Amino acid sequence: MNWLRVISLASLFLLLIPVAVLLYYGLGPLRNPAGYSVTVFRSIELTLVSSAAAAIVDVLLFTPLAYYLARERDRLAETLVDIPVSIPHPIVGVALVILGSPRTPTGMFLNSLGIDFYNTILGLVVALVVISAPIYVKSVQPYFEAKDTAPEDFAMGLGASRIRTMFSVVLPTSIPGIQSGSFIAMSRALSEFGSISIIAYYVLQYPFYGVSPASVTIYSLFSGAVPGGLDAAVTASAVMILISLPIALAGHLFRRR
Amino acid sequence: MIDVNAKKKLGPFSLAATLADGGFICLAGNNGSGKSSLMKAVAGFSQLDEGHVRINGIDVTKSSVEARGVVMVTPGSLIPHLSVDAHLIWGSRLKNLKIPDESLSKVKAELGIDFAGRVSELSLGMRERVSLATAFLSSPKVILVDEAFSNLHERREFIASYRKLTREADIDVIFSTQDEADGSLSEHMYGISEGRTQKRF
Questions:
Q1: Which of A148, A157, A172 sits opposite B70 (nearest CB)?
Q2: Secondary structure of residue B191 in the 3-state scheme
């Protein structure tokens, strides 16, 4: 009897009970058509699009940071990266509201450039970037750390700067690690509620006019705006799980290669 | 001309090495004698506690790796996703050096590079030929060869050709080896043991 295996699988089972319960009740006994209404699918669509956009921004903006942390011993930067994930997420939402508010100088400046976060797709994506980028960095950094540095050392000896080395030597052979990290970041963004329920409870922009992100829609169904809302929330949750699961799995599949 | 006086605390002992020579230099020592540590200090991958590194009379003790004009070649020195030809000119293109086709063909012929394809798919010996040719074609001041002459077929002939090429181009070379007999391939020879160098000739 492999007791480590027994204990591990038992704890994993406990962890998965909430998901299994939602899938069972949501698609079975408590199934409610309001859980897969157009409203729900529109909000899942908004969540998928904004989370994918956030993952793309993570890759473009934060890959250099992950590489930097992997190669230079910068303890301060390493600690600072964790801040956005270690504060309660509603605070991130509040921060973005204030940052873009016409009552503050920063907000007046941003508004004068036509940048507005409140109830916009931009605000939604920015919040998702703030909460998913640290996850992206922490997922890609170990990939870079595990890479053999001999090719990079050679490139620098030949006269390439660190950043040139990153673009020409490291990134072309790091696609699997970056793909894996971006899927993990995207699944983190899909699951976000706290910050986006404040900065973008719904979006007031084409093509998602009046649409809320999926987690917010589920919350508002749950909090009982309509009769039978709890059942609808359970069904919508089950649908959301079915859609987001493959994205989380994709991250792990790429990792294994 | 390389002029090194390197003092640095390492794990089991301290590096206290001096080396002042030009040309084709053999550095012989056993595993863990400090060969690689000395080369890393010359290439700029580690900083000295005390001492200096001068290349052709210019002090590069505090310079970054890419600014020294020193290439260190190890058995892993390879940019794996490139093709052989792209690899060979990679370093020279960084410095905007145009290499005429005939010189490229000449170097390939002298160093026995008569194969193509992605460098990651080559045998160890072929990879060493490509890395060493790439280092040469990037026109550095110094090439440090750390055990990267080890997997070559017709090793002595290759080293003789490499010595001839680098002499013509006025590039100094230090190569490390565990085999004292390799001294016969070089113009100058240093032994190293527990981080201390000793000039043989």
A1: A157
A2: strand
Q: Which residue of B has its CA nearest to A172?
A: B81
Mean pLDDT by 10 residues, chain B (201 residues): 91 89 93 92 93 93 93 94 94 90 92 92 93 95 92 89 94 93 92 91 89
CB A118 within 8 A of CB A97: yes
Asked if A157 and B76 come within 8 Å (Cβ–Cβ), the reply is: no
- What superfamily in CATH does domain B2-199 come from? P-loop containing nucleotide triphosphate hydrolases (3.40.50.300)
Residues of B in contact with A173 (CB under 8 A): 80-81
Chain B CA closest to residue A161: B66
Domain boundaries, chain B: 2-199
pTM: 0.89
Domains in chain A, start-ordered, CATH in brackets? 47-213 (1.10.3720.10)
How far is the C-alpha of B58 from the C-alpha of B1, rounded, in Å? 10
Cα–Cα distances (Å) from A112 to A94, A96, A98, A107, in that order, read 21, 16, 15, 8
Q: Which residue has the tokens 């983190």?
A: A188
Q: What is the DSSP string of A172-233?
A: GG-HHHHHHHHHHHHHHHHT--TTHHHH-SSB-STTSTTBPPHHHHHHHHHTTSSTTHHHHH
Test A157 with B72 for CB contact under 8 angstroms.
yes
Beta strands in chain A (DSSP E): none
Q: Enter the ipTM.
A: 0.94
Closest-CA residue of B relative to A174 is B81
Please choose, from the candidates B16, B41, B25, the residue with its C-alpha nearest in 3D space to the C-alpha of residue B190.
B25
